[in-house]
């Protein structure tokens, strides 16, 4: 069963030559051309993500200067914020990638505009129940056995972090709006400016308000990015002229909301399932016999993973944007090629990332601890984490590909099956039943990731690119402008 779409600009017969030769010409020539396109996307995104992790490290450092209680409470509060708030908002905003990416490829600027407004409004609504959770975080944490003084400190930190929920509701859609149009440099530059100001802001507010000041510095830095991106977008749209006058900002209809919500749910669950799995892994480490050392070792190892993740996330976003742009432009062959090159690059980059971890295993541990037992354990666990990274890169990019085709539920199914039906039960069995300890947790996690990757690769291999291009034309068609996209026969 295949669906073909007839468009006034691209008739049905145009599909045939594009897909008849899925990989035309010289492989290296095509791969080089595609990598050149993705380089302009990925490098600024990598820089932006690295800057974000630097901001997190700066915040943690200032919390540490306030004392052990503030560090523990602030870190616990931020973890709670990630699990219940930022992962949800980030996941919901991921729905903009396929919609805006395909809309940009189809030159449907009205859909771009209305998607930005709708997603922002949806995220603002989502902050209401999340805020209630944050305000009562002390009760939640003490219910699960956390010490009361740490729980109260976490609550204080989160209460002053509440404005960041509103700011993030604007920040995530603004970033997605620009990156879907391959405008990644402004996002990188604005993030860099904000992080450069993050240190002096922290110094001033920490002296004035202590823990509350460090918390406020987080959302003030994010607010700077929002202001800079908003100014840039307004100037960009005014400069375009026609697109700005086209409007569409507040012309949302029921079908628009249904289309967005259908993607928001799976995108949100895909992101949350992955983020939550890492937090559960840390929780399981806390139940091991030598819990303090196990959690410390895992935290040190995961810090390296977070740095590598900035590269991985950039490649996944680039793959999603390239695939969605080509499908929106009615070019299924180019979308297929983008997906293939993205997977090849991610596999090579994953091997490089794993090699970097192995090469650094002797120097990474001493940066965080002088304990010989922790350093020795870090050297062993990094070898397992290196294997995980080799798999994690193509896994993330595969998720970006299915997201670019506007089928994020495939990633959700893979994460649910790989992480929760395979990885976590296996982690528990190896760590607590076979008594392999922390090594068992990471070994189980690795097997689960392999299972998740296999599922996603099967999903990607079964994609009918012509059919997905047809769906993209229907999704982004200018019906109000009489640019018809009529479904033809179903074989």
From TrEMBL:
Entry keyword set: Membrane, Transmembrane, Transmembrane helix
Membrane-topology annotation of the record: Multi-pass membrane protein
Highest taxon, organism lineage: Eukaryota
TM ranges: 41-63, 116-137, 157-178, 185-204, 216-234, 294-316, 336-360, 381-401, 413-431, 438-461
CDD domains tied to this protein: MATE_eukaryotic (cd13132)
Primary residence: membrane
GO MF assignments: antiporter activity; xenobiotic transmembrane transporter activity
Coiled coil residues, start to end: none
Cellular localization per UniProt: Membrane
GO biological process: xenobiotic detoxification by transmembrane export across the plasma membrane
GO cellular component, one term: membrane
Protein family: Belongs to the multi antimicrobial extrusion (MATE) (TC 2.A.66.1) family.
Protein's name in the database: Protein DETOXIFICATION
Organism: Heracleum sosnowskyi
